[in-house]
Sequence to fold (579 residues):
Amino acid sequence: MITKSTVTYIANLAKINISEKELPELTQQMSDIISYVETLNELNLDNIEPTAHAVDTSNVFRDDVVVEKNIIKEVIKQAPQSEETFFKVPKVL
Amino acid sequence: MTQLAKLTIHEAHDKLKAKEISAVELTQAVLQNIEKNNPKLNAFISTCPEQALEQAQKIDADISRNKTIKPLTGIPLAPKDIYLTRGLRTTCGSQILHDYIPPYHASVIDRCLRDGAIIVGKTNMDEFAMGSSTETSFFNPTKNAWAIDRIPGGSSGGSAVAVSADLCLASLGTDTGGSIRQPASLCSVVGLKPTYGRVSRYGTIAFASSLDSMGPITKDVQDAAILLNAIAGHDPKDSTSVNKPVPDYTKALGQDIKKLKIGVPQEFFSEAISSDVRAAVEKAIDQLKTLGAQIVPIELPSTKYAVATYYIIAPAEASANLARFDGVRFGLREKAASLDELYKNTKTKGFGTEVKRRILMGTFVLSSGYYDAYYLKAQKVRTIIQNDFRKAFETVDVIAGPVSPTTAFKLGEKISDPLQMYLSDILTLSTNLAGLPGMSVPCGFDTNTLPIGLQLIGRAFDEETLFKVAHAYEQSTGWHKMKPGL
Fold:
């Protein structure tokens, strides 16, 4: 079901490196968990609507009015690397 | 002097109002206790003694000028390190945020501070709230004050221990699958998970956005009502917070429970429940009967699917929420030659094993080809779980049962078997999936003097009935007056 190559593929999607050493145990654990959650297949779910949100609220809108929040200085203070008000990263390509 | 640290919020409030004690004395007592006992308990990730005393001095000046004292004024609080506190390090128990200083307060923190509460520090927790034992914290586990070779529960373990050991007068935790109720029950303190949407989530680091609930961990039920009064209510900054008026929850205290119907689900009393837990909880339910409530057997057949449903939905939502921790704008950043490497190196170094496991699980169940088979299916089972509760609440007002199948297990006992750890959450998960309020209130100890909690689950936005029942039970027993010997 979940093989080492599944884990490697998913890890790449999630942008996490999994070492060769970690791979076997992690694959086994994920496989066990997935087998367990497959108990949901016992249920007949025809005609059941999915619940994404437990409480009965729907689209909450506000007026499209700008609210000034001058916290750019504090936010950029947190940046590992920055230049003026830009976050600096290694080249993308 | 450290005797003052043993006070509850309401006791301290009375003494502050009567000018019998000062906020500085109270804060000093708590800080002294922290200095004495935190090294062996590791309940705190950060403490801020200077700021706390500075705040206390300001509060004392206000009190001497006869400014109004609110119930939280001058009260030392220790919020879980998942709540953003401006200027005070907030780590979420993770290496990826180990130096992070937030630029703003969580709404809940704002409300407490505006009422004059004093923050003494931030408590330890499972990393990103993922865990049931506080063992996944980057900052080492917290020890249970009742037995320091045992877990305090999780993920709000630091909070529960800080309250039980008088290292603060009260705390704020979070509950996504039981993380307030379970540590409260394992540490003999009160823990309340309010209805989803009752308390603002703005400024609290998100784990699973449709499940996360913010709530109080306190020494008694009255304190929980006081804290809920302060933090509940609509917040325009959290569009999932509900625009419903907030009653005065303290008015639900001291009421009799004679006309109430208490549902006891047979599924909450399976063979997985240890005999000590079963005995204590059954005795507590008997006590509720003695107090005049009617005990009604009920069924919640979907209970057996709660773990599977939760461990698809929560990791899925977590994988989305934790994508932001990428080394770009804040937190840990590892060396890298390209942006892709930056993401990978930072996340690999910054996240612990359990967090990585859940991110991978979440990514998997949401990935192309698997979404319908897992995530969509789990959302449908979530509907079934909600419907089970709706049906039950047609005939009863409150549901009662255990919080945790066992008392506190030993440190290291379950950490290498994730599935075993997940299965221990079976009694609390369905409450979060259904968005309902749930409370844990102390109801006894096992033969090793390890605490046991009684769980009460209520209708949506009916925290008042939970307070009514919990308070009546608490006042008819002496569990809340017992303290660990430290």
